[in-house]
Amino acid sequence: xxxxxxxxxxxxxxxxxxxxxxxxxxxxxxxxxxxxxxxxxxxxxxxxxxxxxxxxxxxxxxxxxxxxxxxxxxxxxxxxxxxxxxxxxxxxxxxxxxxxxxxxxxxxxxxxxxxxxxxxxxxxxxxxxxxxxxxxxxxxxxxxxxxxxxxxxxxxxxxxxxxxxxxxxxxxxxxxxxxxxxxxxxxxxxxxxxxxxxxxxxxxxxxxxxxxxxxxxxxxxxxxxxxxxxxxxxxxxxxxxxxxxxxxxxxxxxxxxxxxxxxxxxxxxxxxxxxxxxxxxxxxxxxxxxxxxxxxxxxxxxxxxxxxxxxxxxxxxxxxxxxxxxxxxxxxxxxxxxxxxxxxxxxxxxxxxxxxxxxxxxxxxxxxxxxxxxxxxxxxxxxxxxxxxxxxxxxxxxxxxxxxxx
Length: 406
Fold this sequence. Notes:
This protein is of the alpha/beta class.
């Protein structure tokens, strides 16, 4: 007897007729005579794929591995690290964007005269030029003609500076640089330098901590640390007026060195060393476009920074003008000066020596503020002297004149 079609609106199962009877329809996808598609009768609800997840016996049907009609849709290519939520690169990018927006808002608030801080950034110090300005002292909270303000300078020492590398760390510890923590890698091979660094830190009461490679990379800004990093304490700058008070307390004529545009911290350290040797009462540096007290400055000063204060002025020209109003004469070192350093009659008066950068010299505003421009006689073939050397010569000549009178 031939096959019988599915009958009824409800798609009832076909009747069997003896052993030779078969199901109506052709295969799994066959269509019965009653118009039922596949397994679903004409009146059945849903699509032709209803129940496709189960076999005839009711067991789950094996999957297609994502190659069937209902395969999973991919998420597309992996985005860059800076765009992945929660990734460290994304957090850094977000923080950088927030800082730029904040700086832009601060610039709008401060007016058109505001300009970013100089090239010395960093805390991980040695990311830029190896220097990172330290925080201002509490005495800088007073405002006045000296150009200092109570507001902290941008980038001025809120974050710590790090010295990276085994040789650099050992030399810094030998020089007596004030440090807070010595970080030693957990999986580095110890040698004589690491052993000496640990011993020097322990003798000076500096904490010694173990740190992984990722933590050392984060602290040093990706610099070659060789498993050793030293966190330097932020320098506590003085107020320009504190230098006059220091001279008054000692009962001496003020002798101050001011640096205009000197951006090398090693030159700053050399000037401080000369100031300590020849009886100066301090060094003044500008808050912007000038070197700050860094690990390099500490090493160049050979410990003199512990004895001679460094003051920071927001506006160097205003600070020098305040010195003039306090009775201090200003002598600027300039190769085109009219007076030789040995003929400087103001050496016996309260004096501030202003030293410019080796390349540009004194700025126009600072040069106009000075009472006299003095020169150091040099050979005709020598164009200029290093700022640290020039400051040492000038301070020596002034100290020599004062010692003869004493």
